[in-house]
Amino acid sequence: MDKNNYTIEEAKRAVDVFSEHNNVRGAYEYYKGLKKFIKETELKQTDPKLYGDYYSCLIKLKFLALNFFDDWQEIEELLKNHFEAIYKIKYYDLWNKIKLNLLTISDLNKRNEIKSRLIKILLDCNRVIISKKKYKGAEGLPVTVKELLKDFTVNIGIDKIDHLKKVQYLTNSENIKRLDEEDKNRLKVLFDLYEKLKISSNTPEGFENDIPMVINGKHVMYSQGQAEEIDSKIVDLIKSIKVGDETVGAKEKNVEYSKQSASQSPSDSLEKKAIKEEREKEDQIDELVKLVNQYPEGSLERKAVRDEIEKLKI
User: What string of DSSP letters covers the chain?
Assistant: First the structure.
């Protein structure tokens, strides 16, 4: 991706590419460059329409790079003011982004506090995610995040979500029946996010950490109250790609590196070591990206490999 070529066409293509490959770091670096470009060119004053197009790309890039932002107030403002943007990003999964940020917080009570704030943001959010223009007689149709969640909670309740009631609501609600599939999917994304945020991190269902386990010789991933078996071939492939001190290859490389470093100054040695480690990490990510594309979207195998990629990118 050419970071010096900030045409609007290039910016739009960058969003699609970073989203398709879940390239968080790439999205963050491009976001910083594009933000600087917009400011320096003063597009807001000279060409408001073009500025709007660039700004839309900037918001999408920020959502894609969400895991590089650790200020929860900034994240909350992004959701409050631009929630509808998540539906304009291919392959985007907002919950997984939020979940990964929550994983950086060891105190589960603090996680719950953040989740409660995000719920409040959604319940008060006036961003439109359903277009009334698509439907006849849509005067009373809920179209904002706030209106849709209000209709949802009135029918489902505000306590722990009853899955039977949820299915009945999604199936029988007159407001939902009239929607096309695209808008129904939008509601599903919103309601699923709301539901996950409502579950306490102190419970097995709400605990965000994925826990790999070996039970009776089988590799299992325990995730938010559910345990699924992982194909042992996937585990072996990940192990073969990841480079660590425990692998024979890594030990040999470290011995060779130590010999080369002996004659260098400490600063040169540390710099070269950092460069070497970064290149190794990039090689690991490249191999894992090739591996993840071999499995269908939504599969446990794809999720396991993507988790490894995310760990390397942060």
Answer: --TT---HHHHHHHHHHHHHTT-HHHHHHHHHHHHHHHHHHTHHHH-HHHHHHHHHHHHHHHHHTGGG---HHHHHHHHHHHGGGGGGSTT--HHHHHHHHHTT---HHHHHHHHHHHHHHHHT---B-S-GGGSTT-TT---BHHHHHHHHHHHH-SSSPPHHHHHHHHHH-HHHHTS-HHHHHHHHHHHHHHHHHHS-TTSTTT----EEEEETTEEEEEETTEEEE--HHHHHHHHHHS--TTSHHHHHHHHHHHHHHTTS-HHHHHHHHHHHHHHHHHHHHHHHHHHHTTS-TT-HHHHHHHHHHHHHH-
